[in-house]
């Protein structure tokens, strides 16, 4: 938990006021959020399916990232009626669906300009 008057918090508030891009990046930033959003788009809309798809993410981190995406109204959590135990699925909101082409464009941009190293693991096919 950060102090409300810390330099980091004050700088973040300033940057969010100066440009909405900073706010947008904060909403979808983080190590796993873009992969989670795209994986839900691809149909992996249950916790266990996301965990199976994103093999290196811990359950704690996945839960926290889902909660943050829900807080920003990028996804909604929906109870599956009649399931025992109570099942939950995650659904992209319109706001989340509008992110898909943006994420694909960022992926293409990254292929052209990012200096990341290629590794041989399977992830949702955002960057094909």
Automatic annotation (TrEMBL):
Q: Which PANTHER family match?
A: TRANSCRIPTIONAL REGULATOR (PTHR33204:SF29), TRANSCRIPTIONAL REGULATOR, MARR FAMILY (PTHR33204)
Matching InterPro entries, A to Z?
HTH_HxlR, WH-like_DNA-bd_sf, WH_DNA-bd_sf
Instruction: Kindly give the Pfam families that the UniProt entry links to this protein.
Output: HxlR (PF01638)
Q: What is this protein called?
A: Helix-turn-helix transcriptional regulator
User: Which keywords accompany this UniProt record?
Assistant: DNA-binding, Transcription, Transcription regulation
Q: Identify the domain of life.
A: Bacteria
Residue intervals of the HTH hxlR-type domain: 19-118
Q: Which SUPFAM superfamilies match?
A: Winged helix' DNA-binding domain
